[in-house]
Amino acid sequence: MSVFDNLVGQEHVIDIVKKAVAATRSEDAYGDISSQEMTHAWVFTGPPGSGRSSAAIAFAQALVCSTNGCGTCKACRSASSGAHPDVEIIRTEGLSIKIDEVRELLTRVAWAPSMGGWRVVVMEDADRLTESAANALLKAIEEPGNRTVWLLCAPTLHDVLPTIRSRCRHVQLVTPSTQAVAQVLQNRDGISPVMADFAARVSQGHIGRARYLATNESVRNTRTTIMKLPLTLKGISSAFAAAQTLIDLATEQANSESEERNQSEIDDLSLAYGKGATGRGMATGASKAIKELEKEQKTRSTRMVRDGLDAALLDIATFYRDVMMVQAGSNDSLINKELEHQITTYAHNTKAHTTINKINAIMSARINLNHNAAPLLTIEALMCVLAR
Prior knowledge:
This protein has 388 residues and is α/β, with parallel strands linked by helices. Helix content is 59%, strand content 6%. Strands 2-3-4-1-5 form a 5-stranded parallel beta sheet, covered by helices on one side.
């Protein structure tokens, strides 16, 4: 067993990382970086679902493991869960990573490794750094601490500040094949071959989403509703109705995932400030702390809605992608095989250049949402384009 076993279709990445870990075992591994496979800063890029964060965390596990990432020892298990004292895993549930968070992080990672070996920082959403936060991080990467390794993750190199990426070694992950993802679902999660094939195909190689689809019927039903929306677009009124449906679905999903968690977090914080204890009630500062938590929860919910919309738009894009394939005379590689009849009929009633324009409109809407455009207005404008 190895920490690299779950990196599906990334053999080239595994080879690079294993060589880097092996280099750290030499006596002067950090003394002459330029002549070694190892360096102090890395950036892992790849499409959603390719496993860039998983690769970075596996790298961190291997660095702190005495046997190069066995996957079973205490160091490996604690590193993957974020409980290892020398491994920092930075995840953001908000819209951005702010400078205060980076400054606090830099204070912690300035310490020497507490258990020997390396101090490793995995930043899963380096593309969400604000400009000021990125500049603060740059200084740390330019002047790294002794035996400190930075592992940054982002969709593409262009999502990382140029001055940061120029100081990092780049590792590019690829989208796993449908067959590879389906095999993992069957072997690891016990999913039936038919369901595994469906989930791997419609998730387009996104392992996490494939598993989520395969094991959750309500998610599959929601996707079915989303995939039928293009067929309902007959005019302006239907476009506005489709937009509202998308917003409602994304909001409902975000609320269902966050409500119980939000209340649990507030209860835990209140308890920490003395709620329910005898005496005068909660300690000073409790009200302010709870308000700050509620503000963070609201930001997290906003991001969840936007992420839900983005996933829905990607699903809709696969509909038009399949339409384009039929228009090009290729029916063999459809993503949405379950809708083949409807897709074929739609393709014969529309022009190829119109299909391309609609796909471009979907991609533009995704970019606008990522730039914090108003969700409802953005989706309404998109649906009006798709209804033409």
